[in-house]
Design brief:
mainly alpha, 8 helices, 72% helix
């Protein structure tokens, strides 16, 4: 890429970051994210902001701005929360599933990450939460 082309691309990216996201665009992005979640896209342990933005057909910068300005979060925190809520639902719907199955089915990279999320958000282990809620 020529130096001037790179500068123009950087200028366009920085200009895009400064513009607020319209209400219509926010609704469209929310709809795409909701559909992705309904289709269990969070199960993919290799998903990252780039692959998600490509699958939603929106720019990485726009997705980042949406998460930051509209949801007040980052990609990693948003994805962890989506997976955490999916894990809780799966535990309620399938009380016979073990924590290994739950963590794998909800896209957690390891069972220990599932445990950390429960300790942080619920103040107990997944097993203790299940005993209280199932």
């Amino acid at each position: 890429m020529e130096s001037s082309d790179r500068q123009n691309a950087e200028y366009t990216d920085s200009k895009e970051n400064l513009q607020p996201i319209s209400q219509e665009r926010q609704a469209a992005i929310k709809e795409k994210l909701d559909k992705w979640c309904e289709e269990l896209g969070y199960k993919d342990t290799t998903v990252n902001m780039f692959t998600l933005s490509r699958s939603l057909n929106i720019s990485k910068n726009e997705l980042s701005r949406y998460l930051s300005s509209c949801l007040n979060t980052t990609f990693r925190l948003w994805l962890a929360e989506v997976r955490f809520e999916a894990a809780k639902k799966m535990m309620l719907d399938n009380p016979d599933f073990g924590n290994d199955i739950i963590s794998a089915e909800c896209g957690f990279s390891s069972r220990s990450y599932l445990y950390r999320m429960f300790k942080e958000k619920e103040g107990c282990s997944p097993t203790a939460w299940r005993e209280k809620n199932c």
